């Protein structure tokens, strides 16, 4: 096995080196022009104002609609892993530069203590709720663009973004008619099948003034996990492998001719998820790739099967006004509700029902008057979130988080080749937490103020080549958590985590491609980690590394792409964890390479290969529970004739055993978060 892995690594490393080398040294090969090789202008919105890639000081990967169109990957988290140093992690989350997006509170800890993500997910300006597990993941149907911002985004996005952010834009209504229909299915190694249906329609209500857009998609069927059981458990189960998901989005766009400069948009989103959602298998997954319903420990340690009934919905209003003198204003108001509930099988006594109601208001004022060397953003933010969790037979938990912030950023053009960037955010967060139950009663209030500065600079060698550097502070709030591993149960407090992040980037755009690299060094104070079943703050830790990414049209019909990430993490100083240990879920290497080949105007095919290096699942760096060290390959083909497109794909082509994370407690693990088995998919899309 090791010899095979070594050969795989050598081959993959060679492929990536060649592809990246081509993206630097072969731009001349794209001298010919064609429709497919035109480089489009990419607009980044994740820094709270529209910017081109070369005007951005954040390391960002932008995935456009054309890369999402075939339906191969529908989860935004799966899509995000195409960026360097971004890998899939446990609890349906991702890890960015070694920082677990799920945060320290996962599983039951999140219900008792409150989930605090480290990577925020924002869809059309609405921050998605996080419960310590991805119960209601965002999907990619009718999505315009996904931005993967790496490194702390606290200055612009606030808390819950110390590791980065995923910013998703869906398509807006159009003043012309367009409709798209899709039907497809996936089949897995265990023979199960999931079917997929989707619809999008958009058009005018009042010519050039009022338009709508409706997007619907749904999935239903049996999943790829395998289940084993004792006695007749599977004969009586309620359908442990079945799941159903429905997503609906409706938009109205109003641009009244009588009020030039006004643009108003109303967006409604609804997501429902029923049935299977966990992907936790037995800890001995490689030798026994099944999810155990029961084991010799009395059942509970082996019960990984849960059936959810969850709903997330939001309504948002965006009102933009351009004063036509270099000053514009954008107001965003949103109301989000998320209700997560699940039952456990076969131990049906465990039942959780948790919901969040969150109202958010944000106003941004943009100032860039004609002839001025300054462009400025001033923002005001307010959020009020109420959480209620009922755990049957145990505890009733209620929480309230109120966040107020003022933030801003100014760019000063010193000369045509040099810009200075400065920004800051001042935020106040108030927390209230009440727990009532048979084993614990507790009430707590906290209030925290934080100042988050950012400074940077951009140098333009020419219109296509830039370097940038930035220093910024990131932050994630502390709180209090429940120790339910000891008797009696006890609540305790843990502190906030902060980071000072240093970064430099280089971007080269050329006809038919681009190349970028980023180097970073992050100095963490109070990093939140699980130590001996309790949340602890690590005194000092650090992460540093480098990222490279490139794409090129080697010919008018051949596109090459590649990326590479290298990462080092280390506990520098701490009283409860050993210095020199690595942070969990932080692979040192993350490599990928791929191509797309077009044959005429109707047919294309392509493939991508990815390698994720070995990493530890826990802070103790237990060697028996190392994860990662896997190689995956995906392939696809597409045939288009007129308005009809047929897409076929296979993911995890070699059916690699993929382990994202072991769940380690007291030095042992009974289950592992695992990746999807080999999957074949087919989608048929018709556009009108």
From TrEMBL:
GO terms for cellular component: cell outer membrane. Pfam families: Plug, TonB_dep_Rec_b-barrel. Residues 269-653 form the TonB-dependent receptor-like beta-barrel domain. It comes from the Bacteria. A motif (TonB box) lies at residues 41-47. Keywords: Cell outer membrane, Ion transport, Iron, Iron transport, Membrane, Receptor, Signal, TonB box, Transmembrane, Transmembrane beta strand, Transport. It is a multi-pass membrane protein. InterPro entries: Beta-barrel_TonB, Beta-barrel_TonB_sf, Plug_dom, TonB-dep_rcpt-like, TonB_box_CS. It is found in: Cell outer membrane. Residues 53-165 form the TonB-dependent receptor plug domain. GO terms for biological process: iron ion transport. Residues 1-30 form the signal peptide. PANTHER family: FERRICHROME IRON RECEPTOR-RELATED, TONB-DEPENDENT OUTER MEMBRANE RECEPTOR. Belongs to the TonB-dependent receptor family. This is TonB-dependent receptor.
